[in-house]
UniProtKB/TrEMBL annotation:
Record-level GO cellular component terms: plasma membrane
Assigned keywords, A-Z: Cell membrane, Membrane, Transmembrane, Transmembrane helix
MF (Gene Ontology): amino acid transmembrane transporter activity
Lineage start: Bacteria, Pseudomonadati, Thermodesulfobacteriota, Desulfobacteria, Desulfobacterales
Protein localization: Cell membrane
Protein species of origin: Desulfoluna spongiiphila
Protein name (record): Resistance to homoserine/threonine (RhtB) family protein
């Protein structure tokens, strides 16, 4: 169980560190003010909690009602993780800071931006569902799945908060802009490798 948890958190971390809508929104708000960045993170994590809850409940229903559909989602999930990895390898993150646009958004606006950006992105549910269906056995109790989901939520809060706090420092922001593409490539390699192992296993 511990090994599975480490892998689940590792896959989620690689996905978090790869450029996507959430990261771009956090980047934009944090570079206006740390307070706006934290409000955005709060909204994103609330939306993520909804996706995790939906994934845990959905998997429980699928396992009980249709093992064939569960296996179909399992292989489709591996394909989706591979797609995310390839996108990280071939894409350009393009996150840059413009000092001329440093005007802080209101707390409520930043919160809503984060909430709806994550909540209205069906790929988040697909990703969580993919990871759970690949790395947790069908007979895993729903309570254990819920604990894994809680661990994902806590990880998201910690990682995004640390990222935002570091991004508020000009020295880190400059280095991040310089190395963001190699970081994205590294995350892509990890995700592609895990997708291949999932199918092979």
């Amino acid at each position: 169980m511990f090994e599975s948890l480490v892998v689940v958190l590792g896959v989620a971390l690689a996905a978090q560190l790869s450029p996507g809508p959430d990261m771009m929104l956090i980047f934009r708000h944090t570079t206006t003010s740390l307070r706006a960045g934290m409000a955005c993170i709060l909204g994103i994590c609330l939306g993520f909690t909804f996706h995790v809850t939906l994934s845990v409940a959905g998997l429980a229903v699928l396992i009980r009602t249709s093992p064939v559909l569960f296996n179909t989602i399992r292989y489709a999930g591996a394909a989706y993780i591979l797609y995310v990895g390839i996108r990280c390898l071939t894409g350009n993150s393009g996150l840059t800071f413009d000092a001329n646009q440093r005007s802080s958004a209101p707390f409520g606006q930043a919160f809503r931006d984060g909430l709806f950006c994550n909540l209205l992105n069906p790929k988040v549910t697909l990703f969580v569902l993919s990871v759970f269906s690949q790395l947790l056995a069908p007979e895993t109790p729903t309570g254990i799945r819920a604990l894994f989901g809680l661990a994902l939520i806590v990880e998201a809060i910690v990682v995004w908060t640390l990222f935002s706090m570091l991004l508020d420092r000009p020295a880190f922001r400059t280095r991040y802009e310089r190395f963001q593409n190699p970081i994205s490539r590294g995350c892509g390699v990890v995700l592609c490798g895990l997708a291949v192992l999932m199918v092979a296993g």
